[in-house]
Amino acid sequence: METRIEKITGNRAEDRKIIEEAAEIIKAGGLVAIPTETVYGLAGSALMAESARKIYEAKGRPSDNPLIVHISKPEEAENIAYTSDIYYRLAERFMPGPLTVILPKKDCVPDSVTGGLDTVAVRCPKNPVARAIIKASGHPLAAPSANTSGMPSPTEAEHVYHDMKGKIPLIIDGGKCSIGVESTVVKPVDGGVMILRPGRISVSMLKSVVDRVEVAKAVTDPEIAEGQKAESPGMKYRHYSPKADIILIDSGHDRFVSYVCENIKKGEGALITTEYLGKIRDLPEGCVIFDAGGTKLASERNRRIFSILRRADDLGLRRLYIQLPPSGGQFLALYNRVIRAAGGKIIKI
Ligand code: AMP
Ligand code: MG
Q: Which ligand minimizes its atom distance to the CA of 152?
């Protein structure tokens, strides 16, 4: 199958044509990669079992890992799920936006979309192109990240092309994703919510709406044993991983920089926060230093992480040194992604 990339240009008539074409493919049971504010999504109708099957196949994703269903307005959740007061409180504050809420599912959602669970994950993206495609197709869209399962999530159309070339007919290029990490996934629990996957919407932001915010153990647990019960099935898999071996170092900034300078070799790379780039010296030839973003800027570091991991693969790096980020506030998303990418191995120095 030939895979085309169509770029959103801002020209209304041209963009409309691209959106209509995407909608036609989806209505006919096909898949289209779409931009969202978090990462690119691999979208198909959430009401057709056949579309879900194609998504799992194109991604090589285990079929017990459920898909997030995307809607164009919060009220459309009624068509696929049993909503609640807490859903609408969260929706009022955070939708459209990077929040996914787990709700009891209605029968119209095929079991293949939810990996056999009786709940469905619902999200209303903010990206106007994503919302226009949902509207034009007239279907809620199952849209997991548009990467090969286990690889870093795609934050640019090029990343999608790399993983999905020959597997899907169309990629809509809406530029770089503004957030760059996947949505915060929450499940309503007694008196509040439990975070199953951290993202841009942080614990303190959620606390402005609900009294209690818990974080699922698997979010910060470096080792998720095979077969261990995870609240969110996706959390039990090694994830977000480039081919390079990730050496995750738990230390202060200065010690990390010294460690990298002493240990890095040809064909290896390191992520260094912007303020510390100047302290890197005496490197062997053929190693690569990436600017990880400002030390205190969680949003900038979140936005960069996946494209750096992909770049490391493009360059064929064997090993990548990453400093363990803090786990508080908006850093929780970064913390969670890097411990998963490293497969749980952390070196404390
Ligand atoms: P992705 O589609 O790649 O953004 O990943 C979706 C994430 O949401 C995975 O970690 C899934 O396990 C999680 N998820 C989707 N649906 C549910 C559900 N019904 N219950 C719990 N977690 C879910
Ligand atoms: Mg994913």
A: 2
What superfamily would CATH give domain 4-181? DHBP synthase (3.90.870.10)
Closest Cα partner for 198 from 346, 104, 302?
Answer: 302
Answer whether residue 228 shows pLDDT above 60. Answer: no
Residue spans of the domains in the chain: they are 4-181, 245-348
For residue 239, which ligand has an atom nearest its CA? 2
pLDDT given for residue 226 in this prediction: 46
Q: Confirm or reject CATH 3.40.50.2000 for domain 245-348, answering yes or no.
A: no
Which residues, judged by CB distance below 6 Å to any ligand atom, belong to the binding site of ligand 1?
Answer: 65-68, 102, 114, 117, 119-121, 144-145, 182, 185, 196-197, 232-235
Tokens, residue 334: 């970064």
246, 250, 253, 255: CA torsion to nearest 10: -100
The predicted model gives 190-214 an average pLDDT of 97
Residues near 26 by beta carbon (within 8 Å), at least 6 away in sequence:
32, 43, 44, 45, 51, 133, 137, 139, 141
Put simply, whether the predicted model's pTM sits higher than 0.85 gets the answer: yes
